Amino acid sequence: MSIRHGLLALLERGQMYGYQLRAAFEESTGSTWPLNIGQVYTTLSRLERDGLVRPLPESEAGQRPYEITDAGRADLALWFATPISRNDRPRDELAIKLALALTTPGVDVRSVVQAQRSATMRTLQELTRLKYGSDRPEDLPWRLVLDSMVFQAEAEVRWLDHCESSLVRHQPNRPAPPPPRPPDGGASDGGASDGARWADEEARR
User: Fold this and answer.
1) Which of left, alpha, beta for 14 (phi over 0: left; psi -120 to 50: alpha)?
2) Is the pTM for the entire model greater than 0.85?
3) Hey, which end of the chain has fewer CB within 10 Å, N or C?
4) What is the pLDDT of residues 158-173, one digit of tens each?
């Protein structure tokens, strides 16, 4: 989700100033995506530059509210109507990390996988606790966000299990060690047997 469209969606509810937008954003996402006030005002400046919001006169307390423009509503409607492409999402840092671990000398890839699984399981437990912490109807928006994060964590655990089993299956087989050589000057058992067989054949001729 882009902060840009998140703020536009909040301003569609009505006029808000920066701190109100930050509080409403975090409430809508169940505080799973915390924002700092600098991000809010930087995004508002860009939205104003692009003609998607307009500033209103300051209040007596010195707070300047913003409202969405018609162009902002059109941009927001287009965002809601357009499916999110996986190419638009950030690259999966974990997948890249494991790919690099496989080709970096001295890295114990299995330890990397196990450490990540432990961390992901802790996250999954915390998300599940939050999910069942409240069942009020007004909490549905952020519970849906939590559901998405729970499903992603569960999928990550399954993928890590797959990675570990793949490491076991594709571990290179070490060649068997060669048989021990006989002491210098001595004959091996195989050599003595061959010699006796040759003597028997000569005697039968």
Assistant:
1) left
2) no
3) C
4) 999 999 888 887 665 4
